[in-house]
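User: Can you model how thymidine-5'-diphosphate sits in this protein?
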Amino acid sequence: MKRGLFITFEGMDGTGKSTQINLLKDRLAGEGHDVVLLREPGGTSISEKIREIILDNNNSEMCSTAEMMLYAAARAQLVEEVIKPALNSNKIVICDRFLDSSIAYQAFGRELGDAVEVVNRFAINGTMPDLTIFLRAGVSLGAGRIKNREKDRIEMAPSDFHRRVYEGYAFLEREYPERIVGIDAEDSIENISKKIWDAVAGHREKL
Ligand code: TYD
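Assistant: Here's the modeled complex, given as structure tokens:
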């Protein structure tokens, strides 16, 4: 079966993911590629409704297991409804966060452990990213950048949580060196964008 290219972006909050995602999308589209841009949780009407529930600050009583399963449910819907069909039509799918976020935030941050991987492997049903760009930054960089804006329920979590998320990403980078390309988020926008382009170039023979 013909298959497009599936690229995900990962990193702590406030590491400049959106800027880089837009630069990459524009460059690929400029070369004539059909690019589908998505963000998690979200990207379908069901997944956007789940997003509202997860991020709502009024839902402070939400237990970690419910949170983890809601992310996985939003993801399952996005894979079936949008990602799989787009890849089968040979498109490039760029997703702002995917299952690595659940490993970092729920398995490590919320300390839910291995169950997160099991549930999420079931949710994505084999649709793994070809390439994951990880914007790596110290805990303090992201925290500083989001300090002045209104925070959602996840961003409000205490700093210990964010330290564990940081460790989760470090674990993922070590565990999947072939899929995950880590880039220093404190570098200039131009340099980061060039490194991302180099990483993507290595996969474009798939198109
Ligand atoms: P969002 O506003 O999209 O943040 P960002 O711009 O940093 O991606 O909110 C998503 C939040 O949800 C973010 O704090 C990370 C968190 N998250 C998880 O905890 N687990 C997940 O599986 C995903 C996809 C996101």
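A couple of observations from the model: Residues 64-88 form the longest helix (25 residues). The chain has a mean pLDDT of 93.
User: Helpful, thanks.
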